[in-house]
Amino acid sequence: MASRYQAGAGNTDVFLAPLHAVSMWNPFFAAALKGNGLPQEGFGAIASEWQGFVGHRLQEDIALMQRLTQSRTPDQVVAAYSEFWQKAAEDYGKEFNTMTKLMTGQA
């Protein structure tokens, strides 16, 4: 019996339907932004800020893993996690404020 996930099972339309729905709005979104440079700038600034933030947080995640592999005692593990989550909370709080300012045009 063929699995519904196998190629040729005839159910591909079910899985691709969300992609068609998203691509359907693409021309409308592009046309809306084409007429006004301000939304393009704002969207670009927001995307750039978020990309930088995610890259920074990814580096923090990698640093945590490295620190955990070098930990020799339970206290070192607890300290690593504690400092990681404290820094994460600070970073996400600052990013939330920055994104809010960008989205409201205050930045």
Defining key terms:
single chain; 107 residues; mainly alpha; 3 helices; 82% helix; 0% strand; disordered N terminus
Q: How would you describe this structure to a colleague?
A:
- The protein has 107 residues and is mostly helical.
- The protein has two domains: 1-35, no CATH class; 37-104.
- 82% of the residues lie in helices and 0% in strands.
- The chain has three helices and no strands.
- It has helices at 12-34, 37-70, 74-104.
- Helix 2 packs antiparallel against helix 3.
- The protein is elongated and about 60 Å long.
- The termini are far apart.
- The model is unreliable at 1-9 (pLDDT under 50).
Give a topology summary.
Layout: H1 12-34, H2 37-70, H3 74-104
The rounded Rg comes to: 22 Å
Oligomer: single chain
Which term fits the overall shape?
elongated
Tell how many strands the DSSP assignment holds. 0
Most strands sheet: none
**Which residues form runs of ≥5 with pLDDT under 50?**
1-9
User: Mean pLDDT, as a whole number?
Assistant: 78
Count every helix, treating DSSP H or I runs of 4 or more residues as helices. Answer: 3
Classify the helix fraction into a percent range. Answer: over 70%
Count of discrete structural domains: 2
Please report the distance between the alpha carbons of the first and last residues.
Answer: 59 Å
Q: Give the DSSP E fraction (strand runs of 2 or more residues).
A: under 5%
Structural class: mainly alpha
